[in-house]
Design goal:
Blueprint: E1 2-7, H1 11-24, E2 27-32, H2 35-44, E3 49-53, H3 61-71, E4 77-81, E5 86-88, E6 98-102, H4 107-122, H5 132-135, H6 137-142, E7 146-152, E8 156-163, E9 166-172, E10 175-176, H7 177-184, E11 190-195, H8 210-214, E12 216-218, E13 229-230, H9 233-241, H10 244-249, E14 253-260, E15 265-270, H11 277-293, H12 295-298, E16 305-309, E17 313-318, E18 324-325, E19 328-335, H13 340-356
Parallel strand pairs: 1-2, 1-3, 3-4, 4-6, 13-18
Antiparallel strand pairs: 5-12, 7-8, 7-11, 8-9, 9-10, 14-15, 14-19, 16-17, 17-19
Length: 357
Amino acid sequence: MDKVLILSGDAAYVHSLKSGLNKMRQFEVETATSGKEAIELFEKKNFSIFVTEVFPPDIDALDLLSFMTQKRPNIPCIIMTDHGKPWYKKQMAQQSFLYHLEKPFTISMLASAVLVGLNLRDEGNNINGMSMGTLLPLVEILQKTCRMEITSKKKGKGYLYFNNGNLIDAHFSKLTGEAAAMEIVQWDRILFKLNELPRCRTRTRIKTHLMDIVGASWDQKRDKGLNAILMTKESLSMVLDRHIRLFNKIKGYQALAVIGDQGEILVSDQKDATINLNRLAGDLKKLFSSADKTYEYIHIDKGEAVTLHKQDSIIIILNPSKKTYPRIRLIGVSSATGNWFYMKANLEKLLAEIVAA
């Protein structure tokens, strides 16, 4: 069973997280209440995922991540913060080796983040290790004043200089200032160390804001439109399993599926084996593509439902009102004589629980 280490200075809080994850019986969870204790545990045991507060009692999260890149570079990390989660314009944060989880969050959200990390490992994507793009927003959170020495196996060694969380200078090979910074922030598979800011590096040579260089923006107002809700096949399956028995009792129920933006089936259930769900999802993809261009007419992109009535069946399509990553839609299939209206009501409840999980 995969081991998860959770670090928080609040003993009661870290215990509640452990208890919540233990109920899912998918992880073996251990806890630490100080950075020193966490490092000692890493030196004794093998963990699959590291979850930490942004401000542990003795060592801040950036110092801990420095240790991780040097000693445990293939272990995905989750940073718990109540300072606003960075939203990455390319949405890479939701599938990142370093994931920011904004408080307050549910146990299901934490479990989903852990499962994403495990999927990265299982798919071999953990070889890319930590990337600068997801790491640097922590410098702003922590208001760091330091010199960061970054080593990339592909690129070599570079330096970033920070004063109170502001990027003031950079150096890599023959590049300096903003040109060097723009190169370094693209790196992955990095190792990094933090040192004192040299006195000769107090002049600001970079005018562009750090978050703009990274390609991110802080969610200061906690706009839910920017905080895409994370979806994984595991989290979707857990919610679906709680509803399947009810659906199978509905008159005329034949099948249901959660499908992704490309028409792929993420999770499904099928009572009628004659229904080709894969082909159905593929055909509906064409409808979605058309509807996205003309949503002002049928509102499929506004969180509403579409019901297709055919001679022998009824297809119900639901789109979540909140943004998800990956983007999902829920489809249900009923016979033409089935209680499709009751089925639609229960599909709406299922979708609401999926989004809230």
